[in-house]
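Please discuss these two lines.
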Amino acid sequence: MNNSFGNRFRITLSGGSHAENVAVAIDGVPQGITLEADDFMRDILRRKSGAPGTTPRIEDDIPQFEGGVSLRDDGSMVTDGGQIRISFANKNIRPQDYESFRDRPRPGHADFVAYSRYGSLLDGFFSGRMTLPLVAAGVIARKMIAPIEIKAELISHGDIEQAAQEGDSVGGIIECRCTGIPVGLGEPFFDSVESLISHAMFSIPGVRGIEFGDGFAAAAMKGSEHNDPIIDATGRTAKNGCGGINGGLTNGNPIVFRIAVKPTSSIARAQRSYDFAAGAMADFSIPGRHDCCFALRVPPVVEALTACVLAEL
């Protein structure tokens, strides 16, 4: 199983949603970067559950630093150039909620393929909770790529209130904009900027699509409509149909992309699927605590992984 991403800036995930913890190991961080606890909590709280439409499972989400940093007298930390490991304890777990999923895999979820490949759910390694350590890694990556700014926001979603009342779920679309981008980042062909960002985005559980700039709408445009006229010597363009990337390289304009996040697979509404123990189709609903709209919590994850890609480049 490949649970790592990146080469020069490398992140490696471990743990699981109902394991002892979830964690990330980060390699390639230079010595001397100052880290404040508030730097982490700001983005962690943006991802945290508890708001309407999110899971009622609440965890402390306090990062524990295990190597790679030194503590200063003022309480801040500074990187020492070694591997940084950050873990988050899982205290509010209910593994019994998942015991039936081997015989009755959840429609749309990874249960069937996980049991077929590994013989287990790997303590919830396929869960959206694995995005928490990604957010922590993104905090460090942001400091490495400053003054680049990254901002992601949920720009559309289904009717969350109605879906919640019906025991169902909805998805959403998230747009990300990166400004202050220098010209020439990227390594065509296979490590082009779009390739690496897309690779990272599809690592987020539930992502179903990605588009840059004009995206899929470009297929219905004429070249005169989609092309971006250059208007000054810095490469600034009159529009940004390419999303800030030409030939796999950044062109100095903002990187703009959007991702589609599917409706959460685990829903309370009754569904019909195959029961492997009974050897027949069966009606069942999914117990446990799950997001009605996981897309609500994804923007800081998008920002974090985008920062990791830019740190890699």
About this structure: The mean pLDDT is 94. The chain has seven helices and 16 strands.
